[in-house]
Design goal:
Layout (H helix, E strand, L loop, with lengths): L1 H16 L15 E3 L4 H10 L19 H15 L17 H6 L19 H15 L10 E4 L4 E3 L1
Antiparallel strand pairs: 1-2, 2-3
Helix pairs in contact: 2-5
Length: 162
Protein backbone atom coordinates (compact mmCIF):
# COMPACT_ATOMS: atom_id res chain seq x y z
CA UNK A 1 0.00 0.00 0.00
CA UNK A 2 2.91 2.39 0.70
CA UNK A 3 4.24 2.25 -2.90
CA UNK A 4 0.78 3.19 -4.15
CA UNK A 5 0.64 6.22 -1.82
CA UNK A 6 4.12 7.25 -2.95
CA UNK A 7 3.15 6.99 -6.64
CA UNK A 8 -0.05 8.94 -6.05
CA UNK A 9 1.88 11.66 -4.20
CA UNK A 10 4.49 11.82 -6.95
CA UNK A 11 1.79 12.08 -9.63
CA UNK A 12 0.05 14.90 -7.74
CA UNK A 13 3.36 16.75 -7.27
CA UNK A 14 4.24 16.36 -10.95
CA UNK A 15 0.82 17.67 -11.96
CA UNK A 16 1.10 20.60 -9.53
CA UNK A 17 4.49 21.77 -10.81
CA UNK A 18 3.02 22.04 -14.30
CA UNK A 19 1.24 25.17 -13.03
CA UNK A 20 4.55 27.02 -12.61
CA UNK A 21 4.78 29.21 -15.73
CA UNK A 22 8.61 29.39 -15.97
CA UNK A 23 10.13 27.51 -18.89
CA UNK A 24 7.27 27.62 -21.35
CA UNK A 25 7.97 30.88 -23.16
CA UNK A 26 9.51 29.37 -26.28
CA UNK A 27 10.10 32.53 -28.22
CA UNK A 28 13.06 32.93 -30.48
CA UNK A 29 13.96 36.61 -30.76
CA UNK A 30 14.78 37.88 -34.26
CA UNK A 31 18.27 37.43 -35.65
CA UNK A 32 19.97 40.84 -35.59
CA UNK A 33 23.48 39.89 -36.71
CA UNK A 34 25.51 36.81 -37.57
CA UNK A 35 29.22 36.11 -37.49
CA UNK A 36 31.15 35.69 -40.71
CA UNK A 37 32.08 32.01 -40.30
CA UNK A 38 35.56 31.01 -41.42
CA UNK A 39 34.08 28.02 -43.30
CA UNK A 40 30.79 26.23 -43.94
CA UNK A 41 32.16 23.29 -41.92
CA UNK A 42 32.58 25.42 -38.78
CA UNK A 43 29.02 26.68 -39.22
CA UNK A 44 27.74 23.10 -39.68
CA UNK A 45 29.56 21.77 -36.58
CA UNK A 46 28.40 24.77 -34.55
CA UNK A 47 24.85 24.18 -35.76
CA UNK A 48 24.94 20.54 -34.65
CA UNK A 49 26.53 21.03 -31.25
CA UNK A 50 25.94 24.62 -30.10
CA UNK A 51 23.17 26.45 -31.94
CA UNK A 52 20.24 25.36 -29.75
CA UNK A 53 21.59 27.28 -26.76
CA UNK A 54 23.79 29.90 -28.42
CA UNK A 55 21.47 31.41 -31.01
CA UNK A 56 17.96 32.76 -31.41
CA UNK A 57 17.13 29.72 -33.55
CA UNK A 58 16.50 27.24 -30.74
CA UNK A 59 14.56 24.11 -31.60
CA UNK A 60 12.40 23.54 -28.51
CA UNK A 61 11.94 19.78 -27.92
CA UNK A 62 8.72 18.34 -26.51
CA UNK A 63 10.15 18.00 -23.00
CA UNK A 64 10.81 21.74 -22.87
CA UNK A 65 7.08 22.12 -22.15
CA UNK A 66 7.02 19.70 -19.19
CA UNK A 67 8.27 20.77 -15.76
CA UNK A 68 10.84 20.27 -14.30
CA UNK A 69 12.69 19.64 -17.60
CA UNK A 70 11.23 22.88 -18.96
CA UNK A 71 12.91 24.81 -16.14
CA UNK A 72 16.35 23.39 -16.88
CA UNK A 73 15.93 23.88 -20.63
CA UNK A 74 14.83 27.50 -20.27
CA UNK A 75 17.64 28.24 -17.82
CA UNK A 76 20.29 26.67 -20.07
CA UNK A 77 19.08 28.50 -23.21
CA UNK A 78 18.79 31.85 -21.38
CA UNK A 79 22.28 31.47 -19.91
CA UNK A 80 23.77 30.28 -23.19
CA UNK A 81 22.27 33.19 -25.12
CA UNK A 82 23.45 35.72 -22.52
CA UNK A 83 27.06 34.50 -22.71
CA UNK A 84 27.41 33.85 -26.43
CA UNK A 85 24.73 34.35 -29.06
CA UNK A 86 25.58 34.11 -32.76
CA UNK A 87 22.17 35.56 -33.66
CA UNK A 88 23.07 38.83 -31.96
CA UNK A 89 26.64 39.05 -33.15
CA UNK A 90 27.90 42.60 -32.94
CA UNK A 91 25.43 43.62 -30.24
CA UNK A 92 26.52 46.72 -28.38
CA UNK A 93 25.20 45.79 -24.93
CA UNK A 94 26.94 43.18 -22.82
CA UNK A 95 29.62 40.81 -24.01
CA UNK A 96 29.34 38.15 -26.66
CA UNK A 97 32.02 35.74 -25.52
CA UNK A 98 32.78 33.96 -28.79
CA UNK A 99 36.48 34.20 -28.06
CA UNK A 100 35.98 31.79 -25.14
CA UNK A 101 34.05 29.21 -27.15
CA UNK A 102 37.05 27.37 -28.62
CA UNK A 103 38.62 26.87 -25.20
CA UNK A 104 35.41 25.42 -23.79
CA UNK A 105 35.13 22.99 -26.71
CA UNK A 106 38.81 21.99 -26.31
CA UNK A 107 38.35 21.43 -22.57
CA UNK A 108 35.24 19.30 -23.10
CA UNK A 109 32.97 21.76 -21.29
CA UNK A 110 30.81 22.30 -24.39
CA UNK A 111 28.47 20.87 -25.30
CA UNK A 112 27.62 19.95 -21.68
CA UNK A 113 27.26 16.26 -20.88
CA UNK A 114 23.66 16.71 -19.69
CA UNK A 115 22.69 17.94 -23.18
CA UNK A 116 24.07 14.96 -25.10
CA UNK A 117 21.65 12.12 -24.20
CA UNK A 118 18.67 14.00 -25.65
CA UNK A 119 20.73 15.42 -28.55
CA UNK A 120 23.00 12.66 -29.89
CA UNK A 121 23.70 14.72 -33.03
CA UNK A 122 25.62 17.16 -30.81
CA UNK A 123 28.15 14.52 -29.76
CA UNK A 124 31.33 15.36 -31.61
CA UNK A 125 34.20 13.02 -32.33
CA UNK A 126 37.66 14.02 -31.12
CA UNK A 127 38.52 15.11 -34.66
CA UNK A 128 35.34 17.17 -34.94
CA UNK A 129 36.09 18.88 -31.61
CA UNK A 130 39.54 19.88 -32.86
CA UNK A 131 38.05 21.04 -36.17
CA UNK A 132 35.32 23.07 -34.43
CA UNK A 133 37.77 24.64 -31.97
CA UNK A 134 40.08 25.70 -34.81
CA UNK A 135 37.12 27.11 -36.73
CA UNK A 136 35.89 29.01 -33.68
CA UNK A 137 39.34 30.55 -33.17
CA UNK A 138 39.45 31.52 -36.85
CA UNK A 139 35.97 33.03 -36.63
CA UNK A 140 35.97 34.69 -33.20
CA UNK A 141 39.59 34.88 -32.07
CA UNK A 142 40.95 33.54 -28.81
CA UNK A 143 40.38 34.41 -25.17
CA UNK A 144 43.56 36.39 -24.71
CA UNK A 145 44.39 40.09 -24.61
CA UNK A 146 44.31 41.58 -28.08
CA UNK A 147 42.68 38.50 -29.67
CA UNK A 148 41.06 39.30 -33.00
CA UNK A 149 37.29 39.21 -33.10
CA UNK A 150 35.27 37.77 -35.96
CA UNK A 151 33.48 39.89 -38.50
CA UNK A 152 29.79 40.47 -38.15
CA UNK A 153 27.22 40.22 -40.89
CA UNK A 154 24.48 42.73 -40.13
CA UNK A 155 20.92 42.82 -41.39
CA UNK A 156 22.03 44.73 -44.46
CA UNK A 157 24.62 42.04 -45.33
CA UNK A 158 27.63 44.30 -44.78
CA UNK A 159 30.58 42.83 -42.93
CA UNK A 160 32.14 44.89 -40.17
CA UNK A 161 34.84 44.10 -37.64
CA UNK A 162 33.85 44.05 -33.97
Amino acid sequence: MKPLKFLMGAAIALAAIQLVPYGRDHKNPPVSGEPKWDSPRTSELFGRACKNCHSNETVWPWYSSVAPASWLTQFDVSLGRSKFNVSEWGRTTGENEGDKAAGEVKEGQMPPFIYLPAHPEAKLTAEEKVELAKGLVATFGEDKPGGAKGAVKGKDGDNDKD
